[in-house]
Amino acid sequence: MESVPPSAGSQVSRVPAQRTPPEELAPPAVAPAPRQPRRRLRTVLTVVAGVVAALCLAGGVVGYLVYDRAVTPDRSTPAVVVDSYLRSYLVDQNDVRSRLFSCDGVTEFDALRRLRDDLAAREQRFATTMWVSWERFQVIRVDDSAEVRVDLTFTAEVDGIRQSDRQAWTFTTRFNEDWRVCSATAN
């Protein structure tokens, strides 16, 4: 069977092919929009960054406080300041550090200076080491000043024999923001 073309008078041949106008066509298939980065991941990263920043800040504050406490001398009580002064002046022989515990502009430490010089001379003369210790702090406080009485003990080993000497000393302290040693005298 052969296909027969429509006759010349038929309507099929006279009507142009009909096409749907473009505005009536179905819209083309839209590809799905690309997925946005996960907001959850961004939120987690933000929280982690915030926690790390807070830990760094807290660590810095704690570090500063620990450092400040470590380097600031304790001058909280008359007994503590006398103990620290004796340690820095007689044991460590550190004049700069001992000034941190003494009153500003006060030079009433001649007796203590002579004692330290005498101990150094004895060490050289007897080729030994002098150990200094102290005990029995007795504090008599009156308002912003206090007297601290202390027994100083000097010990050395000379020719295999241990020798010691004990002396009573009085230290005058004053309070002005913190306690400071202002004078030292042997009793």
* Overall pLDDT confidence: 85
Report how far the terminal alpha carbons are from each other. Answer: 146 Å
State the order of secondary-structure elements, H for helix, E for strand: HHHHHEEEE
Whole-angstrom Rg: 47 Å
Unreliable spans are: none
The total of helices stands at 5
What structural class is derived from the secondary structure elements?
Answer: alpha+beta
Number of strands: 4
Reported for the largest beta sheet, the result is: 4 strands, antiparallel
Structural description of this entry:
By secondary structure, the protein is of the alpha+beta class. The protein has helices at 11-14, 39-71, 78-91, 95-99, 110-126; strands spanning 131-142, 145-158, 161-176, 178-186. It has a 4-stranded antiparallel beta sheet. Strand 3 and strand 4 form a beta hairpin.
Please outline what is shown here.
By secondary structure, this protein is α+β, with helices and mostly antiparallel strands. 39% of the residues lie in helices and 27% in strands.
Describe the structure using short key phrases.
187 residues, single chain, alpha+beta, 5 helices, 4-stranded antiparallel sheet
